[in-house]
ABC transporter permease (Flexivirga alba), 137 residues
Amino acid sequence: MGPTDRMRILVIAVGSVWPTLLATIDGVRGIDPGVLDVTRIFRTSRLRKLFKVLLPAASPLILAGVKTSLAFSIILVVVSEMLASTAGIGYFISSSQQYFNLPSMWAGTIAMGVLGYLLSEIFFTVERRLLAWRDDA
């Protein structure tokens, strides 16, 4: 696909979707079989079963997967900018390193760390609100 924006977006999407997908599968598989039997006995519709049983039961693991995907996507953004871009923090860090401009390189690295920290804190706030119904949230 060449060093285009489309390629970078594809790399980030493909690289970061797997933790969420695998955590979702694990969360749905971990649901108590007795709960699924009850939905079968009461002939619950598929849509109601999905939104009232499966998603609430699997949501802690789904959000854990999204948290991991967030970290992967930040890493992939920086790496894709370092390798195939002429703009962005990753490019700034890489070009600063090539020209031995160490203060700029460290400034870019610290900026990425702060950005990652802020995104993580925003996600933790959203996660606490979404999982407020849990006792151990």
In short: The mean pLDDT is 87. DSSP finds five helices and no strands in the chain. The helical segments are 5-29, 33-41, 46-84, 89-98, 102-130. The chain has one domain: 5-130.
